[in-house]
Amino acid sequence: MAEATSTEYIELKRSVDLLEIGMFVSRLDRPWEETDFIYQGFQINTLDELHTLKETCEYVYVRAAKQKWHIEQDSEPSEESKQQERITYINKVPIDQELNQARSAYRDASSQTSAILDSIRLTGELNVHQVNQVVDDCVDSILRNDSALVWLTQIRNKDNYTAEHSLRVCIYAIALGRELGFRELELQNIGVCGLLHDVGKVRIPENLLLKQENLTEEEVKIMQLHPVYGKKLLISKSGIYPGAVDVAYCHHERLDGSGYPRGITAERIPYYAKIIGILDSYDSMISDKPYSKGMTTLDACRHIYQCKDSLYDKTILGHFIHFIGIYAPGSLVEMNTGEVGIVIETNNEDGIKPKILLVLGSDKQEKNERIIDLKKGDITFTNTRYVIKKSLSNGAYGIKIESYLKKGLLVAN
Questions:
Q1: Are residues 285 and 185 in the same domain?
Q2: What number is the average pLDDT over the span 298-325?
Q3: What is the structure's pLDDT at 409?
Q4: Residue 219 covered by a domain
Q5: For position 2, what pLDDT does the model report?
Q6: pLDDT per position as a tens digit, 142-156
Q7: Rounded to an integer, what is the distance from CA 292 to the centroid of its chain?
Q8: Cα separation of 14 and 25, whole Å?
Q9: 412 falls within a domain
Q10: Do 284 and 160 fall into the same domain?
Q11: Number of domains, the chain
Q12: What integer pLDDT is reported at residue 151 of this predicted model?
């Protein structure tokens, strides 16, 4: 093909399967008003936007300078354009080295998250720089080691549920993004989505958020308005990652259309909203509420997995369960001996055989701590192999994860 010499722009009709990050989408195969896109014409900057286009349209029109286009419209894409290049990360530091730094980062992030939500609640202002700083610090820690901050999500403050929950979902999102091979900018974006996914709750009456009993049907309807409030809050803020608007609006939508606020189905739910929807559900399930005790991590994973394809994306869910583990780090388990321990390291080869710190004896009283490794087939005091009998809820038997972290006992050797 002869090389063009003018800088005239043209529109090319392209299948969504041929789209790549960096292309400018000028028109869709349907009216913009029928989609969830906020802007009429935009450059594809993230995988979230790429996935949403693929799920919404069959083809689009992209704008380009003539001299930069040398691929015929109907030509077969290269292998590189068929598959977005993913990143495989390695931990730069061991968990014991990262844990102290992560603990400081977690405390600061928790305080700043509360301040961010309080500012929106009281003044309507969103400190975008503060949001990005919280997320940047979490990304930095998770890139150094993917376990330390996730460990700290086990430390829970029931007095500030919305802020703590938002931060935990942010951390889960970044860690899962790393598992999925997201680039660093994508990790930042998904982290912002996680941190702000429940921002609409600042418009929900505090008496409902703190209510000690189950909500009435009318109160549930009020609570289910928080995605709408979240969208309205974020869409008016400049400088925030645009995908966070869609996630705040859509994280309670489900693949089969049973979610809220609009009851849209899989093809219309943005990719990042599908991710945050899983993480939001998981953290909510394992958290104590004023009116209910949280599930065990195992029961939460089991419940979510039973809803694969009907409520949650099966592929994302598979990566999440691989990342979090059947017995998540920091979760509590009771052994076949009656002893109680804290899972300190998962086993990716065999999820039911993690490494465990035993902290309570069979009488449920404190004992001299020791580590057992089910993968190695460690033996009980009766000369049989240790087996996990059941998973326990966070805080069972008064076990405080933080106290063992401070003693440095929760780092696998």
A1: yes
A2: 91
A3: 60
A4: yes
A5: 38
A6: 999 888 898 888 887
A7: 23
A8: 10
A9: no
A10: yes
A11: 3
A12: 83
Q: Does residue 230 sit in the same domain as residue 266?
A: yes
Label residue 86 by pLDDT band (50, 70, 90): confident
pLDDT(72) > 60 = no
Instruction: Please report the pLDDT score of residue 17 as a whole number.
Output: 77
Report the 3 state secondary structure along the chain: CCCCCCCCEEEEEEEHHHCCCCCEEEEECCCHHHCCCCCCCEECCCHHHHHHHHHHCCEEEEEEEHHHCCCCCCCCCCHHHHCCCCCCCCCCCCHHHHHHHHHHHHHHHHHHHHHHHHHHHHHCCCCHHHHHHHHHHHHHHHHHCCCHHHHHCCCCCHHHHHHHHHHHHHHHHHHHHHHCCCCHHHHHHHHHHHHHCCHHHHHCCHHHHCCCCCCCHHHHHHHCCHHHHHHHHHHCCCCCCCHHHHHHHHCCCCCCCCCCCCCCCHHHCCHHHHHHHHHHHHHHHHCCECCECCCCHHHHHHHHHHCECCCECHHHHHHHHHHHCCCCCCCEEEECCCCEEEEEECCCCCCCCCEEEEEECCCCCEEEEEEEEHHHCCECCCCCECCEEEEECCCHHHCCHHHHHHCCCCCCC
Tell me, yes or no, whether 172 lies in a domain.
Answer: yes
226 and 206 Cβ atoms separated by less than 8 Å: no
Are both 218 and 133 inside the same structural domain? yes
Residue-range definition of the domain harbouring residue 44: 9-73
Q: Does 40 or 331 have the greater pLDDT score?
A: 331
Mean residue pLDDT across the chain: 85
Side chain identity, residue 103: R
Q: Are 35 and 28 in contact (CB under 8 A)?
A: yes
268 with 387, same domain: the answer is no
Q: Does the pLDDT value for residue 71 go beyond 70?
A: no
Closest CA to 181 of 83, 279, 251, 94: 83
Is residue 83 included in any domain, yes or no? no
Choosing from 295, 324, 353, the residue where a domain stops is 324
Domain of residue 222, CATH code: 1.10.3210.10
Token pair, residue 243, equals 């995908």
Beta bridge partners of 355: 345, 373
